[in-house]
Design goal:
With about 55 residues, the protein is an all-alpha fold. The chain is about 60% helix and about 0% strand. It contains 3 helices and no strands.
Length: about 55
């Protein structure tokens, strides 16, 4: 995550996409998005909602 943040900081004018950042740091788009979301939520003290019950 640190590498992605450095990329965004070093080129803040660039319109970064999740896919582009994932590629730059050697991750899949889905894994990067999940990890990013988890980190942002953790920083804000927000926890993901519990899983939905199986229907």
């Amino acid at each position: 995550m640190g590498d992605a943040l450095r990329l965004m900081h070093d080129n803040a004018a660039h319109a970064w996409t999740v896919g582009e950042l994932a590629t730059k740091v050697g991750s899949s788009r889905a894994a990067f998005a999940r990890h990013f979301d988890e980190r942002v939520r953790a920083q804000r003290g927000v926890h993901p909602p519990p899983p939905s019950p199986a229907e």
